[in-house]
Task: structure prediction
Amino acid sequence: MTDFARRIAAASLLSLGLAGAASAESDSMIALVPGGPNPYFTAWEQAGVDAAAEFGLAASDFKVPQKWELSQQNQLLESLLSQGYNGFLIFPGDPVGSISIAEELVANDAQVIAGAGCFQDPSPAAFCLGTDTGNSAYLGMQALVKSFGEEAKGKKVAHFTGFLVDPNTQLRIDAVKKAADEAGIEIVQVIADIDAPEPAEEKINAYLAAHAGNIDGIITTAWVPSVVSANALRKIGDKRIHMVGIDHDEVVLQAVRDGFVHGTMIQNPYGQAWLGSFALDKLRSGCTVKEDAPFIANALTTKFIDSGTALIDASNVDGYVDVMREQTAKIYDGFEASYLSCN
Amino acid sequence: MTSHDVSHGSNGPISTPAPSSGAPSSGAPAQLSPLRRFLLTNEFGLILLIVLFAVLFAVTTRGFTTPFSLFTLGRSAAVNIMIGLSMMAVIVTGGLSLAVGAIGVCAAMFLGYLIQSLGMPWPLAILAAIAMGAALGFINGFAVVRTGLHSFIITLATMSIFFGVMVFLTRAEAFRGLPPVFADFGKMKFATYFSPLLLVTLAAALGLGWLYRYSVLGREMLAAGARPEAAELSGIRVGRMIIYCHMLSGALAALAALMLVARNGAAIPSMAGQLGQDWLLPAFLGPVLGGTLLNGGRAAVLGTCLGAFLVTMLSSGLLLMRVGEFWVQSFLGLLLLLAVLMDKLRRSYLARRNLV
Result:
């Protein structure tokens, strides 16, 4: 991750010529606060360090609540505000219940952006920067369809996904079904609520033990189910079952290299934190969000910015870092002109 | 609003079982001045700790004494104290309730349903939600009395039942269309520093203090918890008292949940974590630190308030000290252990000196 982050920062400086644009010392103290511990967010830490160095921020620190618990996140955010942090990239512990704390942060002259997950409108967040989860799942299913070749029609696929309380989960389920229907593929089983090691191991392994012979493919749309499924296919040793996963866990990437997994849909957590830090600093320095900014609407908000997604397969698995870097650079290029109004 | 210990005939006609002290007392307790008696109480120890830690945090952290920090500290403490009082109401019977969180969430979601789906006026909905909490508490109490099983088993089961039914009925969807008065109340400030939620908690604590100290009902609750057989012989209907205690606990849990609704501006199924388990640590920390006996018969209302406040302040202060978010929980667990050991030492000391 460190290597990846350094390469991101270096590439950004070189390819975009940002060295001269790096601002003077800023008093922006940015806090990057996920809803709780999850490997997805580990990239935020280095992204914050790099953004602070690159944009001259007083700080851009990764702060993790000790548990996925709304009250823990609220207490941490209150504490961070008291400590002097004045910009917050937040994965809302609850898209509705976190709005109140966001309003208090803004009322105390802090800036707030939602990262990786959105607040439900209306909220005081300037915008939401995250993965277009429905589109990512749709593209992932299309990649799986493509992997079957001309005989895709009539294939049977199992879908392993995340927590049902996460509003993204239903979007993913719907998107996968849509792509499957379009290709004439049957989703024979959706197993949700398993984005944690214990339930994922138990349910996926039990399902494959009973039904591996009855399915032709697996699509996963959450981190832990991807890892568990990749491991399971490796143990079974049968490359007949095609799989497309999600995210960039090393287990999944190695399975892609070894041919047990066809591909994985990477998201861009590094870019979310890096761009989020940049945008928060800009908002603090007086920029405002453009009224005609080209936001996307999703199930929660009309102010959504897609932080990017891409398929990583055997052809580009060793260069996945470059893919994420390109996506970050692509969004950064023109970000200020598209979304912010700075006098 | 001091500790209301129905023990050794000092405050009432019924004796609790002897505390687990290191040495048994002999003869009548020594006469102490009120001041010295207070200095030897659990509550004084907690006040001392609160002052010491407040000074420590004020000196060593950035932001502890800012108006926003003190405001949020008071607001969090108000909820934690109410949760602690909810558990205390059951602990006085010698039992416990693992379902306080689940009851709280059910009551909050019921409030959301009444207001958002049925259009009920919010004052009526608040009363109905508190009544719902009491009703769920009644189920706990009734099951405990009827089955004769320990409340641990009963509330372990009802925790899952209550929460499961709530998730089934609401499909785990939050109620956000609540009147602005809720969110406004949660964010309201008195004199820059104080949350009105503290007043709600204060009123509940005063009410409980009066109940246990001055009312017959409260005395009978304590007596039923202290020595059920003796209470039964004295004409107290112990089963009924246990049910009342669970109902009181349920109502207080509902009140705590409504305070969280005000805090969040919405009724959220996950507000107390999966099955409401996130409330368990604060629920036990307050009463245990405050000196409420786990085997019943003693209700330390002031102690529970101080204990819960201390825990909230430590959480806040440790976060400000940046000791690492993951260490806070460990520290609180250590504190609980330390507090129990200190209390044991204190009791042992008092017994050796024949002061109790």
